[in-house]
């Protein structure tokens, strides 16, 4: 019987409850922050955060720092094959988010209204910046500076229905040393836009994944892409890779993993791999909204809610 800690159990519960957001298209483009050479993408990552349960935090060895207790590797926590990318890195965030104002953060709505009331989720979870790998051997769960940890002060707006899935969060104080991301307010992205996503796939430390293509740009409130994302990416900023402008919020996608041996459902899991057109997936065919790939809520469609939050102290 597998031993699963509290954080792994929470991640598994979240995976089952949240809309699926996950899959590899062609080559796996996910990179750790320390592996990224783009100055723009590194700057964007500074304004991205992970949503971590407050009960995991314990006093760290260094002054004004915290550690995360009961962390577990991706391999052990979710029965992922040891040969899979990032299998030995620790799990912690259940969702991703990004700054749009000095104390205002955006994430997916299902991160705040799936497993509890929004006000309770606000109280029980913190937002952590720079939760990333500094090197191949670094442990991001140790010595997290208190300056990088922010509480949720209030949920300014939250919505999850057939068309919208977002939450606008007010943090307990202004974020220091990070710039709010610029985001589209009118119009829509071009079909040829190259995209990048920054967040916490499967609860891992920050990953930057570029080379996303737009596969469906017809829907009024959403578009689809071939970005390599997983369920912990919910709420991630999907950005124009060249300009850094936020185009949308990652909200759902195809299945992320499949059994390594199809005839043995309990065998360790490997990533679902599709081609660059979001077809021929190793986990099989999926219809509905995700047939075109990962689904992104257009951020310009919630401009009014963001503006209202930015005007609130």
Summary of the model, kept short:
With 313 residues, the chain is α+β, with helices and mostly antiparallel strands. It has helices at residues 6-17, 39-45, 74-78, 110-113, 118-124, 303-310, and strands at residues 24-25, 30-32, 48-53, 57-59, 65-68, 95-101, 104-107, 125-129, 144-145, 149-160, 165-171, 195-199, 207-212, 214-216, 222-225, 237-240, 246-252, 257-259, 269-271, 273-274, 294-298.
What does this 3D model show about the protein?
The protein has 313 residues and is of the alpha+beta class. It folds into two domains: 6-19 and 39-180 and 301-310, Trypsin-like serine proteases (Thrombin, subunit H); 195-299, Thrombin, subunit H, CATH 2.40.10. Helices cover 14% and strands 31% of the residues. It contains six helices and 21 strands. The chain has helices spanning 6-17, 39-45, 74-78, 110-113, 118-124, 303-310; strands at 24-25, 30-32, 48-53, 57-59, 65-68, 95-101, 104-107, 125-129, 144-145, 149-160, 165-171, 195-199, 207-212, 214-216, 222-225, 237-240, 246-252, 257-259, 269-271, 273-274, 294-298. The strands form five sheets. An eight-stranded antiparallel β-sheet has the order 2-13-12-16-17-21-15-14, with helices on one face. A hairpin with a 2-residue loop joins strand 6 (95-101) and strand 7. It is globular and about 50 Å long. The protein starts with 5 loop residues before the first helix and ends with a helix.
């Amino acid at each position: 019987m597998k031993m699963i800690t509290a954080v792994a159990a929470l991640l598994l519960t979240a995976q089952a409850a949240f809309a699926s957001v996950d899959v590899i298209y062609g080559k796996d483009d996910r990179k750790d922050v320390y592996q990224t050479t783009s100055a723009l993408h590194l700057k964007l990552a500074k304004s991205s955060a992970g949503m971590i349960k407050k009960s995991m935090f314990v006093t760290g060895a260094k002054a004004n720092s915290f550690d995360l207790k009961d962390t577990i590797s991706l391999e052990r926590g979710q029965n992922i094959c040891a040969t899979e990318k990032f299998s030995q890195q620790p799990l912690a965030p259940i969702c991703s988010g990004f700054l749009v104002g000095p104390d205002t953060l955006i994430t997916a709505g299902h991160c705040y209204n799936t497993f509890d009331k929004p006000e309770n989720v606000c109280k029980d979870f913190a937002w952590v910046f720079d939760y990333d790998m500094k090197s191949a051997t670094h442990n991001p769960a140790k010595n997290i500076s208190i300056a990088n940890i922010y509480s949720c002060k209030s949920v300014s707006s939250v919505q999850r229905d057939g068309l919208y899935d977002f939450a606008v969060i007010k943090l307990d104080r202004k974020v220091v040393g990070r710039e709010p991301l610029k985001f589209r307010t009118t119009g829509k992205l071009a079909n040829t836009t190259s995209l990048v996503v920054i967040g916490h796939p499967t609860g891992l430390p920050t990953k930057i994944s570029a080379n996303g293509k737009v596969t469906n740009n017809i829907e009024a409130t959403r578009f689809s892409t071939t970005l390599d994302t997983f369920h912990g990416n919910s709420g991630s900023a999907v950005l124009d890779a060249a300009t850094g402008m936020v185009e949308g919020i990652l909200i759902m996608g195809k299945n992320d993993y499949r059994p390594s041996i199809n005839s043995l459902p309990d065998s360790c899991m490997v990533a679902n791999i599709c081609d660059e057109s979001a077809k021929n997936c190793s986990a099989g065919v999926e219809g509905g909204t995700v047939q075109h790939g990962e689904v992104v809520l257009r951020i310009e469609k919630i401009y009014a809610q963001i503006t209202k939050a930015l005007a609130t102290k």
